[in-house]
Amino acid sequence: MAANSGEFSDVLETPLLDAKGTNILQNISEEGGYAYVGMSALAAAGDFRAAEAAREMAWEQLHSGPWHSVLPIWRDAYSMACLNVAKFHYAKGEFREALRVLDMGLIMGGLALRKDLDMAVDKASAAQATNHGGSEEGAKSRRLLVPSEFNEVEVRHFRLYP
Asked: Distance between CA atoms of 146 and 159, rounded to whole angstroms?
């Protein structure tokens, strides 16, 4: 389980995926994506490696030809796979990795699960900000280009050109 603060659960909710997932998988199956459907079923049962494999399968379909020749169902399959992978990362408290996967889902995925992706990004972003606010990782993300204390005399004598 993730070491989350009390206000965040260790689960990313996906109401659209829960409602439309079976239909999406049926459509993928009709397009010959039997292996993807099998991996997605294993992912839903808690198999992280299967979730990663399903994401890779969908990625390969997205890159199997010109963008306009890719069937839209494979974009939804990629969104689904990204949500499944992000759920695992989120549950382990790996919010940065969850956000990276969700971002790819938003970029490359279809529209059917877009609201789930948006909600998951919001939740993972909030969890990362809360849980890493005082940590070294959080400090790195808030670093300033110019240190808060600097020698003003040195700055005034600094020349950009010789």
From this structure: 16
* Cα–Cα distance list, 102 to 18, 120, 123 (Å): 17, 7, 11
> Is the per-residue pLDDT at 4 higher than 80?
no
The answer to whether 51 touches 39, Cβ cutoff 8 Å, is yes
Tokens 């294993």 — which residue? 42
On the 0-12 / 13-18 / 19+ scale of CB atoms within 10 A, 73 is buried
Convert the pLDDT of each residue in 28-55 to its tens digit.
999 999 999 999 999 999 999 999 999 9
Residue 10 pLDDT class (50, 70, 90 cuts): confident
Report d(CA 92, CA 137) in Å as an integer. Answer: 16
Distance between CA atoms of 53 and 50, rounded to whole angstroms? 5
